[in-house]
Amino acid sequence: MAGEERFHFHIQMDAKDLWMFSMYHANKGYLGVFNVLFTLASLYLLVTQWSQTGMGRRLLLLVCVLMFTVWQPGLLFLKAMKQLKNDRMKSPMDMTFTKEGFTVTQKDQSMDVAWDQIRGVVGIRGEYILYMGQMRAYLIPDRILGQDKEKFAGFLREVLPGERLKRV
User: Fold this and answer.
1) How far apart are CA 117 and CA 107, in angstroms?
2) Other beta carbons within 10 Å of 76
3) Strand 120-124 and strand 109-114: pairing?
4) Which of 53, 65, 105, 135 is a plausible cystine mate for 110, CB 3.0–4.6 Å?
5) CB-based burial label for 48 (10 Å; 0-12, 13-18, 19+)
6) pTM, 2 dp
7) pLDDT tens, 126-159?
8) DSSP 8-state secondary structure symbol assigned to residue 70
């Protein structure tokens, strides 16, 4: 990276990458708070009311405890596995980042994206999410960034205004 700072990543998505992205969206903001409170309240009722309730109510409370802790993550993982069967997700993607923007190349298609087209970047455990809009985002897993993670984070802080960065 002599001269102009450039980053180039060859990205092959896996189920864990997509699952982490889905878990973030399923549990962010008020929805995540609700999920935690609902689970804790259900667990509290299950433990404190165990001896005073019948089998039907116990099973209902157990289902409530498992809903956001086991079933939702499991279903999101199955969804991620299904998404990986899509041709677009099977194909690796090359991303090259410069101070002007970045280029995404997949199969025989290429697209240039200027930094002013990026709505925001969010760092979550395991990956960075680059949002272009409500329905379009690029994932850059930490395993791809490797030892360049801190340099890349500094680069993002340099090319994007602070209000478009979250946990970067």
Assistant:
1) 23
2) 19
3) unpaired
4) 105
5) exposed
6) 0.87
7) 999 999 988 899 999 999 999 999 999 999 999 9
8) I
